[in-house]
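To illustrate the input format used throughout this study, we show a single complete record. The first block contains the structure-token representation of the backbone; no residue identities are included at this stage. The design step must infer an amino acid for every position from geometry alone.
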């Protein structure tokens, strides 16, 4: 049932909510500053990736920028198509790299599927961001977004900065890197699970509406999501 009110009652309630929204914005600014202040960890391993021009290094992914954002897209080596949830996120990425480049930031997606497989799916989806394969490197494993069935099977796997049970296959995430004047690369930040919601503009728009995401009662929260050409 709708929660109706007079215009005056609505305005009073809206102003009260505005104060809470302002508090959240200020907290968000504080968190962003704390995120930027995190210490840097030097990347010692030489990672290689497969892309449109063949094999490239992690350093190559920066292009002319000093900073790099990597979206860890769930797409296993033998999968027929990309993860529907990651595809939902990726639908928000088109064109963002152009604006990021103006602030000295490069953006790529990385998955373990072969590059030709990724590129075919990218064209099908109409995406224009850069996408590379980490199939021949430990990159996904070192950043805790891939877990091979053939790997040792402990009771828990490390994901989202804690031990979680039954973490297998591919999981989503985002990682940030910076390159200094000497070409050294440092890992500065990673986020996983619900920490990725900030990157999904569609979810943020849904949160403005009366019914929101309308996911209560589903088998799991994103059970409604499909790859966009399958709705």
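Output of the design step:
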């Amino acid at each position: 049932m709708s929660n109706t009110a007079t215009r005056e009652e609505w305005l009073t309630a809206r102003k009260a909510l505005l104060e809470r929204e302002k508090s959240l914005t200020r907290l968000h600014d504080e968190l962003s500053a704390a995120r930027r202040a995190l210490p840097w960890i030097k990347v010692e391993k030489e990672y290689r990736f497969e892309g449109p021009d063949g094999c490239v290094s992690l350093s190559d992914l920066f292009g002319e920028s000093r900073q790099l954002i990597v979206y860890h897209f769930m797409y296993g080596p033998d999968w027929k198509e990309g993860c529907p949830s990651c595809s939902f996120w990726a639908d928000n990425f088109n064109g963002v790299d152009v604006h990021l480049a103006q602030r000295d930031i490069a953006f790529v997606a990385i998955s373990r599927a072969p590059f030709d497989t990724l590129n075919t799916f990218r064209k099908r989806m109409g995406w224009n961001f850069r996408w590379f394969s980490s199939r021949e490197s430990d990159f996904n494993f070192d950043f805790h977004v891939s877990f091979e069935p053939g790997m040792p099977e402990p009771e828990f796997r490390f994901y989202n900065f804690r031990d979680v049970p039954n973490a297998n296959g591919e999981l989503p995430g985002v990682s940030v890197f910076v390159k200094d004047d000497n070409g050294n690369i440092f890992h500065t930040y990673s986020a996983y699970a619900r920490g990725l919601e900030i990157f999904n503009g569609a979810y943020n728009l849904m949160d403005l509406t009366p019914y929101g995401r309308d996911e209560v009662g589903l088998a799991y929260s994103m059970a409604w999501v499909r790859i966009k050409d399958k709705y």
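Structural context for interpreting the output: The first strand starts at residue 41 and ends at 42. Residues 186 and 201 are 28 Å apart (CA to CA).
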